[in-house]
Amino acid sequence: MWCLLLALATFAPAVGVSLGASGASVLGLASPTTTEAPVSTPAPRSSQAELSAGNENGTSEQHVRIRVIKKKKIIMKKRKKLTPPRPPVTARASVTTSPARTLDLPEKQEPDCPPLGLESLRVSDNQLDASSSQSFGLGPHRGRLNIQSGLEDGDLFDGAWCAEQQDAKPWLQVDARHPTRFSGIITQGRNSIWRYDWVTSYKVQFSNDSLTWWGSKNRSSGMDAVFPANSDPETPVLNLLPEPQVARFIRLLPQTWLQGGASCLRAEILACPVSDPNGLLPEVPVLGSSDTLDFRHHDYKAMRKLMKQVNEQCPNITRVYSIGRSHQGLKLYVMEMSDQPGEHELGEPEVRYVAGMHGNEALGRELLLLLMQFLCREFLRGDPRVTRLLTETRIHLLPSMNPDGYETAFHRGSELVGWAEGRWNHQGIDLNHNFADLNTPLWEAEDDGLVPDSVPNHHLPLPTYYTLPNATVAPETRAVIKWMERIPFVLSANLHGGELVVSYPFDMTRTPWAARELTPTPDEAVFRWLSTVYAGTNWAMQDPDRRPCHSQDFSLYGNIINGADWHTVPGRSVSQRRAPGGQGSHPAPLGSSVCGTPRHE
Ligand SMILES: [Zn+2]
Question: Where along the chain is composition biased (Polar residues) (predicted)?
Fold first, then answer.
């Protein structure tokens, strides 16, 4: 069951929006109280990943993203070996729920207890211990599901816990700090672009005092159960215990691992709190929020229902409409919020927020659902700032551009979905790379001295190749382009998952094949200002103690970055301020406060 979404509470997205004629205004969202910032997955070395994801079109994207991009690095060689050449979504090895043939595992391999919180950091570093570690960067604190390595081997933050080579009896230990009912384990191998390491089988032991241990037994034989583990670095493998065990400590004891490699793993533990009728135990902290906003994951139906409710609560300032359908026929719902819903008023800037372009990045979707609830609620309360915002702008919120992908990821669950499943649309197209590349024709025209007299630097037409009937353009992308042609947006933003930073245009380097290069638009100062307003009011970004998601510490640069100066991939998504074939659209910063897909807690 998906319950409270802790990560959302940390979000406090304060959105700085330039409102064109109406001047600047800043909308600060209420900031709930929790402080946990789940760090998870993705790595910034996205170039390979993004390329592999299908950027047939060159492409461009029209918004500034606040991206929290769920970009995990992919090992191309490895992936090729591991997966048949099919669209990425389907090509990815499916989750192995590996019930051992030799084990009497429960037939139903679905987790019944929630994650203890290795991935979300609810389990702190000092709750993790190990028999040995190859280095500090490969210490037990790195044995967390979906954690990513740094760029170099030997980084302080490497991609797994790895025992020393000579450690004949390695173990990784988790102290739950309370009597806990352990029900299952999810493991991955080591995340690294240089090495392949994963554990192929392990045993599990339990203890109440960390001295006396007992093992998980095979029910029929009474022997220690040996759980089959991983066969590649990334695919999460779930094993449910034959019998759940109540204990305080749990140990994973690798028995075999990839030949020539080391005993390296990343893990999540599934565990339920144990009731304490006598009240003798220290109280287990309860997750939650006192805010009345709806903090949980919303699948398609729940999202639709929530949008309908907001519309009913605030009929005078809202309108729900659809801009088209996904490949699988789900409607792409937009919540419009303004004092004259349905009408473009002269001089009133049109602003849009798009989330869920990558279907498995749940956070942006939830943020926009929270934003619409917040705006409705505060409008009803008479909040002057919100009232002014709704009176002087027209806001369009598209919480889920890729609902097909979201449904896939949602039903798999956050622990088992891995980094790729549900990321692309149903055809395997990365919507983030699926827009036309408008940078190249613009820059070519500039080089030829044609701008702005012969070629305007806005309202660029779509390139011919992009409009051909056989062009690889997803229905979701087409819907958004048509939307942009219909409404003269002046400001837009995309929300992603995977990194905590505001990224502003351009995303593509002007020098061909340059890996990174500051590539400013003529509006560099505006973009930097907008981005800074967002970053400066985002609680998580401003937390001096927050851990970098990956190897880059964006707090050194004010938590904002020019997209192309971060990393480029030729032909990759380009945050352009010019809508394809349509209206100029300034990017707006958004933000998020988690590094990866938020857990359901
Ligand atoms: Zn994304």
Answer: 32-61
Q: What is the pLDDT of residue 321?
A: 98
Measured in Å, residue 65 CA sits from the centre of ligand 1 at 9
**Taking CA 334 as the corner, what is the angle to CA 429 and CA 359, rounded to the nearest 5 degrees?**
30
pLDDT value of position 342: 94
- Span from the CA of 23 to the centroid of ligand 1 (angstroms): 30
Q: Answer whether the bond into residue 435 is a cis peptide, omega within 30°.
A: no
**226 alpha carbon – ligand 1 mean position (Å):** 37
517 alpha carbon – ligand 1 mean position (Å): 21
Distance between CA 97 and CA 489 in Å, rounded? Answer: 46
User: What does the pLDDT look like over 187-201, one tens digit per residue?
Assistant: 999 998 788 999 999
- Give the pLDDT confidence score for residue 143 in this predicted structure: 96
Q: For residues 531 and 422, what is the distance between their CA atoms, to the nearest angstrom? A: 28
pLDDT, tens digit (0-9, with 9 covering 90-100), for 36-92:
233 333 333 333 333 333 333 333 333 444 444 333 333 333 333 333 333 322 223
Determine the residue type at 102: T
Phi, psi dihedrals of residue 533, rounded to the nearest 5°: -60, -45
Low-confidence ranges of the chain (pLDDT < 70): 1-111, 150-156, 277-291, 550-551, 568-601
Q: Nearest CA to 186 among 40, 287, 87?
A: 40
Distance 214 CA to ligand 1 centre (A): 43
The alpha carbon of 357 and the centre of ligand 1 are apart by a number of angstroms equal to 6
CA of 568 to the centre of ligand 1 (A): 15
426 Cα–ligand 1 center, Å:
15
Q: Ligand 1 centre from 405 Cα, in Å?
A: 12
Q: Return the half-sphere exposure (C-beta side, CA atoms, 13 A cut-off) of residue 293.
A: 28
Dist. CA 355 → ligand 1 center (Å):
8
